[in-house]
Amino acid sequence: MNEHYDTVVIGGGQAGLAMGYHLRQRGLECVVLDQNQRVGDAWRTRWDSLHLFTPAPYNGLPGMKFPGPSSLYPSKDEAADYLEAYAHAFSLPVRTGTKVDKVTRVGDMFHVLSGENSYSARNLVV
After folding, report:
1. What are the CB-based long-range contacts (under 8 Å, 24+) for 50-53?
2. Are 114 and 100 in contact (CB under 8 A)?
3. With contact defined as beta carbons under 8 Å apart, do 77 and 52 qualify?
4. What is the pLDDT of residues 80-124, one digit of tens each?
5. Closest listed residue to residue 29, CA positions, set 53, 52, 58, 8
6. Is there a contact between 61 and 88 (Cβ–Cβ < 8 Å)?
7. What separation in angstroms does the CA of 73 have from each of 24, 40, 53, 67, 76?
């Protein structure tokens, strides 16, 4: 199955979700591909003791503040839950469980292969 978008974003972390947000705000068709099973899983698999080194007010993404008091240094799980809530709040088109195997460029189009699925787009963000 080949799907076409204006932009394919590889990676559903902070940068990929923020990019998806901005693309959607501009009315552009995009998809965010992430190999993890849930948005935020890259954070969930870190050490239990991990906390962000910046307080909550500095960790929000465009359009949504990070919850909690200004003195909070979020845990890895709070960061992961925030990312998942962010993707849900803005109905971002995230495809989880989608590992990218290959990217090629033919002419002015990018082709992204993931298992038996393929995606094509004029723009690619990695």
Report:
1. 50/75, 50/76, 51/75, 51/76, 52/79
2. yes
3. no
4. 999 999 999 999 999 999 999 999 999 999 999 999 999 999 999
5. 8
6. no
7. 29, 17, 7, 11, 10
